[in-house]
Design goal:
The chain is of the alpha+beta class. It has one helix at residues 2-18; strands at 24-31, 34-41, 45-53, 59-69, 72-78, 92-97, 101-106.
Length: 109
């Protein structure tokens, strides 16, 4: 019986440590206009959007739009193109949730 409890306890610690402690937004340039954009949710949240904006805050494309998401780490890849498939430069990623408001990351090569 002790072995089972130890296994359950270790499993619970692993799951709890996998949940991020803060909201974060990071963008990594991979190559040839390819980006990896990651955000973290420390709690279950609502109205999640991840949007790419132009230099003048003009809308480019939406990568994620959810009514709700569980706490965790989410990663998206973006090819550097707008909704029409045209390449864009000098943009920023905006991550918005109902609980945290908005966060922004400038995408630079």
């Amino acid at each position: 019986m002790k072995k089972i409890w130890i296994l359950v306890l270790l499993s619970m610690i692993f799951v709890l440590s996998a949940i991020p402690k803060t909201y974060e937004l990071t963008a990594t340039y991979l190559n040839k206009n390819n980006w990896q954009i990651t955000y973290t949710l420390p709690v279950d949240d609502e109205n999640i959007t991840l949007t790419i904006l132009g230099k003048d805050e003009a809308y480019i494309i939406t990568l994620a739009d959810f009514e709700s998401q569980k706490a965790g780490v989410y990663t998206y890849f973006w090819d550097g193109k707008d909704e029409n498939g045209l390449p864009v430069e000098g943009v920023s990623a905006r991550f918005r949730t109902s609980a945290n408001g908005a966060m922004k990351a400038l995408l630079l090569k």
